[in-house]
Write a structure and sequence with these properties.
Blueprint lengths: L1 H10 L8 E4 L8 H8 L1 H9 L9 H12 L10 E4 L7
Parallel strand pairs: 1-2
Helix pairs in contact: 2-3
Length: 91
């Protein structure tokens, strides 16, 4: 987060925006959470309980956040870290 903010300040005079994305637990076929679901179901269920909506995120949900930050819709946003975790960090 500090790296993002410091680069945003450094590059602002050149009209370059710098943002980052901090994803929460993301599940996809062949990923570590799919493997963990089989090898350690108690841990997997505990992680699910730590997410307010009770499910893990998808790569597409993270990609949508990245696309937003890269788009003109986020043209007035710089130096920010967007947490994409369904509130998991709140628990």
């Amino acid at each position: 987060m500090h790296y993002t903010a410091s680069h945003a300040l450094t590059l602002a005079p050149d009209r370059i925006r710098v943002n980052s994305v901090a994803p929460g637990s993301i599940e996809f076929p062949g990923g570590s959470w799919e493997q963990r679901k089989k090898s350690d179901p108690k841990l997997y269920e505990g992680i699910l309980r730590s997410v307010p909506f009770g499910r893990l995120g998808t790569p597409g949900e993270v990609a949508s956040a990245v696309l937003f930050l890269a788009s003109s819709h986020a043209g007035w946003i710089t130096g920010q870290t967007l947490v994409v975790d369904d509130g998991q960090v709140l628990t």
